[in-house]
Amino acid sequence: MRRFSIAIALTSLLGLTLSGSPRTAAAASFDCERADLAADEKVICDTRTLNDADVKMVTTFDILTSLMAMGNRGKLQDEQSAWLKRRQACGEDVECLRAAYGERLKQLDEAYKNLNRPL
């Protein structure tokens, strides 16, 4: 629980750091300065709330994968790959991207709640 709380605090701090310009140098999961950005990535880089959602999603995903046993970690990684394909299918549709991030963050939250913890 302490590791997760620290991660949330770091995510908040990172969000404050990124608040300067409308187009940041990087979202959490890709470089916004790449010349070959996909349509969904361009919108994420240019839309503050989506960029913040990307930061939160990838930070949460990274923390969860570090806390999970190998078998569950593989399952989570497979789910992430499938989710990325769904996100990419949104293209430039901001509402679709918001919904995709909302869905994924909810799934990651559930995965955290279901972690096996020592009693």
UniProtKB/TrEMBL annotation:
<feature type="signal peptide">
    <location>
        <begin position="1"/>
        <end position="27"/>
    </location>
</feature>
<dbReference type="InterPro" id="IPR052755">
    <property type="entry name" value="Lysozyme_Inhibitor_LprI"/>
</dbReference>
<dbReference type="InterPro" id="IPR017160">
    <property type="entry name" value="UCP037256"/>
</dbReference>
<protein>
    <submittedName>
        <fullName>Putative secreted protein</fullName>
    </submittedName>
</protein>
<keyword id="KW-0732">Signal</keyword>
<dbReference type="GO" id="GO:0005576">
    <property type="term" value="C:extracellular region"/>
</dbReference>
